[in-house]
Structure prediction request, 154 residues.
Amino acid sequence: MAIAAGFLMAAMMVVICLDVVLRNLGYQSSAHFFTFTEYALLAVPCLGAPWLVREKGHIYVEILLMTLKPRPRKLLTCVIGGVCIAVCAILAWYGLDVTISDFLQNEKDVRSLDMPRWMVVGFIPLSFAMMGIEFLRFVVRREDFLGSLGGQSE
Prediction:
């Protein structure tokens, strides 16, 4: 998924550069360029987020954890992991509901091309389900998912 996100980012760069060059040469660029970029802007974070969690690259605020002793810090880290799993599960469930509803109602996203809406929003439940699995992995294995601070001992 992260490789696909990287490929989409490179493709967006190429499309945007091509669009700028065509416009500067006085040609009309394709309306599909803009549409592709909009869709990719949703897909890239959705595809890359689970990898980011796995690599512990997500953002967290450590100010409270810094003040705690090792045992309460470990407990709070588990609580935070549980909250992360719950939030990801709720968003994945809701996203799946929206995706299935769009599929069953044959909803279209009408832009320069008519795209089935479920294909556009389908990245959302996939992303949050995979992030939830990654957080669950950390909690079940009792691994530190907050970088160096979460498992730090005094």
